[in-house]
Amino acid sequence: MQTFRARSSTIWGWGAIALGVLVAVIHVSSVGFSLATGGIGLGAAAALFGYGAFLRPHVAAHEDRVVVHNVTQTATVPYARLADLETRWSLEIVGDDGLKVGAFSAPAPSATAARHAQRDAARKDDARAEYGRAGDRLGTPSGDAAALVHAASSAWTAAHPGESGGEGPSIVRRPDWIGIAVVAGAIAAALWGLLG
Questions:
Q1: Which residue spans within the chain are E strands per DSSP?
Q2: Cα separation of 93 and 90, whole Å?
Q3: In what order do the strands lie in the sheet with 90-95?
């Protein structure tokens, strides 16, 4: 199994955790532990938010399927049912029945980043310039995730020629109970910090 998470997600996630710890430590050291409910609650909320929104979501390419782990949901698509990969807003996996799932952990680049990447690729006569959309380019989160899924899907297709289709929906979605608990914990901590 190979996994993908954007480098920016890792930076934002650890940054939010560090900010949460810093807020809690500064507040506890200035007012004492017994009076620091606000700082501890808001610090815990920031840390939980960073973990739940940025460090947990990822795209996992297994031998026979791709699993998209978003904030509160997981979606599984067997390679036999994979029809297309889109990268307009983020990596979107499209099933053979038209169902789609977006990967929160693999966003497409912003318009500014896309213009810079396109200009740099054209200036360097880079192979990345051949891609039509900025989100398809290697070196972008959506492009790198799409390349990972495409490589795993191609390997599966080569090992299982002619095998395709299936019954039921192409994308199976399930709640991610750990993600839901982290989000609920972040909301509870924020409320405790603000109202406590």
A1: 2-4, 58-61, 65-69, 73-78, 82-86, 90-95, 100-107, 172-175
A2: 10
A3: 82-86, 90-95, 100-107
Contact 194, 41 (CB under 8 A): yes
Among candidate residues 37, 71, 69, the one with its CA nearest the CA of residue 194: 37
Termini Cα distance of the chain = 44
Instruction: Please report where in the chains the tokens 């972040």 appear, as a residue.
Output: 186
Query: Coil, strand or helix: which one is 33?
Result: helix
The 10s digit of each residue's pLDDT in 36-75 is 888 899 999 999 999 999 999 999 999 999 999 999 999 9
Residue 166, both tokens: 């299936």
Bridge partners (DSSP) of residue 115 are: none
- Whether the pTM exceeds 0.70: the reply is yes
Residues 106-120 pLDDT 10s = 998 876 666 666 666
| The total number of residues written for the chain in this structure | 196
Query: For residue 68, which of 7, 110, 5, 8 has the smallest C-alpha distance?
Result: 5
